[in-house]
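pipeline/complex-builder :: batch 7 item 3
reading input block
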Amino acid sequence: MGREIKRVPLDFDAPIGKVWTGYVMPDEHCGQRCGTCEGGGYSQAAKRLHDLWYGNAPFRPEDNGSVPLTPETPAVWAFAERNVTRSPDYYGQGEHAIRREAQRFTDMWNRQWSQHLNEADVAALVEAGRLYDLTHTWTRDSGWQPIDPPVMPTPEQVNEWNIRTLGHDAINASVVVRARCERDGLELLCPDCDGEGSLWRGEQHKAAHEAWTRTEPPSGEGWQLWETVSEGSPMSPVFATADELASWMSDPERGRDWVPGDVAAKFIADGWAATLVGSGGDVMSGVEFMGTRGGDV
Ligand SMILES: [Zn+2]
């Protein structure tokens, strides 16, 4: 859990344990979630194409001019073999275990458009500069450079590359879906919210939403402990000195949040200006404070 020290006015009286109002967008500035697209911003058609991409709607490789994978497809077999070799305790050993794993991926990947791109899909990705692994070379001296003369990877190459590297991300999905919508004359964006996912009462409402920014609490002479796991809220009263805050932090009444006095003092001295995060034993610089608590602070 993250903690930080803030310097606030001595009479600062924002409620303890409540998110500072300056960090929360007021309701009147919030847009209303578009019910038509459920906030996603896509048209029905584009939403369905995304579902095909991820295998959340019925898809067959043949529908996109591709060939179903089998466990023997070299990239599938190699992927399964790597999984099995890494975790023999989990998967078992030998060809039977590899075959079972290869079958599992075959079944899953044959239901996903992302594993079965066609030429038009590939062209869209190349156009968007999304397949550098296949269209460019990289060297330390000159970085990424296009292969000369330019190459257009085949769908088979791209589909195999994706299995080897799990290369497609959400951006690739949106690029391919957008291109497909353009080719097929389908609407890409939700007509009701123009793709924003939110509805506005008018231009003024939208402008106010976009203009809103977080406001930090006022600064001053006082010392206060904040938690930063939520948007940020005060945890302690405001004290006139760092010593008083350290005493408060090391008072047995803090219960779970108690820390030894010297640790509290060091935390305040080191970190009053920084956001300090400790989790699972990972500790950022200068924060023995976190380490002593084994990550549950
Ligand atoms: Zn919408």
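note: The longest strand covers residues 3-8.
queue -> next item
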